[in-house]
Structure formats: structure tokens, C-alpha cells
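Hello,

Our lab assistant flagged a job as stuck in the queue for most of the afternoon. It eventually completed. Since we weren't sure the result was trustworthy after the delay, we are filing this so someone can double-check. Below is the sequence as submitted and the structure that was eventually returned. Let us know if re-running is recommended.
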Amino acid sequence: MSEDFNMSMRKFLKQVGVTSQQAIEEGMRNAGDTAGQEFSAKVVLTVDGLDIEHVVTGTIKGQN
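-- returned structure --
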């Protein structure tokens, strides 16, 4: 793979990770006390022009 591809991929994945973490943290703050709770999370990745639908699921534990 080309260097341009690798750099654009890394930039995109970093943006996804950082902005997703910020959104989750804001949601937790807005929810208040979430201690002892677990939240199901799902990310769906699609790429226009490519036949890709990648789903990642997981659990996020609450905090107080």
C-alpha cells in the first residue's frame, strides 16, 4: 500500500477514535451517575464506493 493511503487511513482512524471517545465521555457526563451500569455500544463503518459494512460491538461500563 502507498504512503498516502497509510497516512490517510491513520488520520481517519485517529479522528474516529478521538471524536468517539469525546462523544461517549460527554454522554456519560450528561447521564449523571452511571456507576454499576453497562452500556451496549455499536459502531458501523461504511465506505462510499466500496462494498464495506463493518460492525464493531462492545460494552462500556458506567462511572460515578
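-- support follow-up --
The delay was a queue issue, not a problem with the job. The result is valid. The radius of gyration is 15 Å. Residues 3-31 form the longest helix (29 residues).
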